[in-house]
Amino acid sequence: MTDAYSSQKSVTRWDVSMGDLPRQVVAASESSRLFLLPDKTMDGVGLYKDDVVGLIKTLRHHGVDIDFASAREDRRYLSEFGATDVVAVIAIAVAGNLTGDLLKGVALAVWHRARSTLGADSAREEVGSANVTVRIAEIERNDRGTVVRGLEVTSQVADVEALIRDAISDRRPTQLPPGLPDADESEDTAE
Predict the structure, then answer these.
(1) Taking the CB of residue 148, how many other CB atoms lie within 10 A of it?
(2) Which helix (H) or strand (E) holds 17?
(3) d(CA 50, CA 28)
(4) Are 97 and 138 in contact (CB under 8 A)?
(5) Cα(111)–Cα(87) distance, rounded to whole angstroms?
(6) Hey, what's the torsion of the CAs at 46, 76, 84, 112, to 10 degrees?
(7) Over the chain (191 residues), what is each successive 10-residue block's mean pLDDT?
(8) Whole-structure pTM value
């Protein structure tokens, strides 16, 4: 029996603003660090599903520079039970540009998140074929200001890295807030 959902792949924009992100993420230096965003926020407290408790430790063990977006005192863990088509929804913020190394870290985080949801005894193939949704908030800064842009990918775990790589290679440069015009900038004019 085939799962119709497993063949679906989508890459869309995720509408996320600086106000939607925890303060420590927005204030982080652009050291190209990953942050695991909470599933929900209520009264300033980040709510995470309980199956991510050991995720950060596991990812650090595998060389990924990642932390919870919410401080220890500002996060809680929730248990949820029920079957869904998507095994996991994982939201990650990137302080800086989404480089190749960070992309590999995101893919590793997605794999381990799906594995923790399915159970530690899950076969590699089962984890790779699990459906996930990944939301990435990329925080870029320059002397003119800060821009947050979001990307949402839904696919099988095994395809996430390639889909994100394709999406970031095809996109236009981020429009940063206006500042003083540079002498070497040219404007597009219609004739």
Answers:
(1) 21
(2) none
(3) 25
(4) yes
(5) 11
(6) 90
(7) 56 84 80 84 88 87 91 86 64 83 90 86 90 89 79 93 85 49 41 39
(8) 0.75
